[in-house]
Specification:
With about 300 residues, the chain is α/β, with parallel strands linked by helices. The chain folds into two domains: about 170 residues, Rossmann fold (3-Layer(aba) Sandwich); about 100 residues, UDP-galactose 4-epimerase, domain 1 (Alpha-Beta Complex), CATH 3.90.25. Helices cover about 30% and strands about 20% of the residues. The strands form four sheets. A seven-stranded parallel beta sheet has the order 3-2-1-4-5-6-11, sandwiched between helices. Helix 3 packs parallel to helix 4, helix 5 packs across helix 7 and helix 7 packs across helix 9.
Length: about 300
């Protein structure tokens, strides 16, 4: 089996590559901005938006395509132009940001209003456009994964480690509102295991799949669980000033982000990781790699 990875040198892509190692011959295309130390991977340094370069790189027919690096339509157009023939399955890592809460309220199911939500800027709208283009060209081969907040080892976004840094240094965690905003999480390894699970199966229909744990957490619960795992006592200070953006002192926007994941959990043989189990493994990884640093934001400095 020939597998084409578009992206894959860090976080979600890295998890997928490691999970698929040994499942087939893997060719990875990325710009070479990060090295990868995984034996048996055919690494091609190429900017996917450069159609001429990409056409020279994609010289084989691929059974599986896993796309973690498409953020705008040009990323998709170049690949569709350069693939010699459609793959048997195309896995596109999209996002819960494609849903539009002006047309549907969370928890969003896969049929909720799309087009992107303004709270994410252009990110969700562009991801949604990518989905639409792929769907027009290969509807019978396309699997779209829409996770909410992804966490786990190698996470380059300051989320769980942002909170742990404050807990471990006995600093206040400033929380927007009353701490009851609800969010949902997806362990990075669950995305990788889903793709691995479906590669050889023919009984799962293509389409869009929300992916994540079948449970929501308030900001308050989230912090308390991170404190439990790190064996710390949180110092929480609530911020009720709507003029101050939550993102200036907290790792999430002050908006509910929840999904209905019934479609994916009904797939026989597939299961997701509980947040407590996943966050324990994540904490162990960050601790082992010395990757938790405390640096107050400018807004936090103003409040101390």
């Amino acid at each position: 089996m020939k597998i084409l990875m578009l992206g894959g040198t860090y976080f979600i892509g890295l998890s997928i590559v490691r999970r698929l190692q040994g499942r087939g011959h893997i060719t990875m295309v990325n710009r070479g901005s990060r090295s990868i130390d995984i034996p048996g991977i055919n690494l091609i340094k190429c900017d996917r938006r450069n159609t001429e370069e990409l056409a020279k790189a994609l010289i084989e027919d691929y059974d599986i395509v896993v796309d973690v690096s498409a953020y705008e339509p040009s990323d998709i157009h170049s690949v569709l132009t350069c693939l010699k023939k459609p793959p048997q399955k195309y896995f596109y890592i999209s996002s819960a940001a494609v849903y539009n809460r002006e047309g549907s309220a969370p928890p969003f199911d896969e049929n909720a209003s799309g087009g992107g939500d303004s709270i994410w800027g252009d990110y969700g709208a562009l991801k949604y456009e990518c989905e639409q283009i792929l769907g027009e060209h290969m509807p019978s081969q396309l699997f779209i994964l829409r996770p909410p907040y992804v966490y786990g080892p190698h996470n380059y976004l300051e989320r769980e480690q942002f909170i742990w840094a404050r807990l471990l240094h006995q600093k206040s965690v400033f929380v927007p509102g009353d701490g009851q905003t609800r969010v949902q999480f997806c362990y990075v390894e669950d995305i990788a295991s889903f793709i691995e699970h479906l590669i050889f199966r023919s009984d799962v229909a293509p389409g869009a799949y929300n992916i994540g744990e079948n449970r929501y957490y308030s900001f308050q619960e989230y912090i308390e669980l991170l404190a439990e795992v790190s064996q710390t006592t949180p110092i929480i200070r609530y911020v009720n000033d709507p003029k101050v953006s939550a993102r200036t002192y907290f790792p999430f926007r002050n908006d509910d982000l929840t999904l209905n994941v019934n479609k994916i959990i009904r797939i026989p043989g597939y299961s997701t990781t509980t947040f407590l189990d996943g966050i324990r493994q994540t904490y162990e990884w960050f601790n082992a790699h010395g990757s938790i640093f405390y640096t107050p934001t400018e807004q936090e400095k103003a409040w101390y």
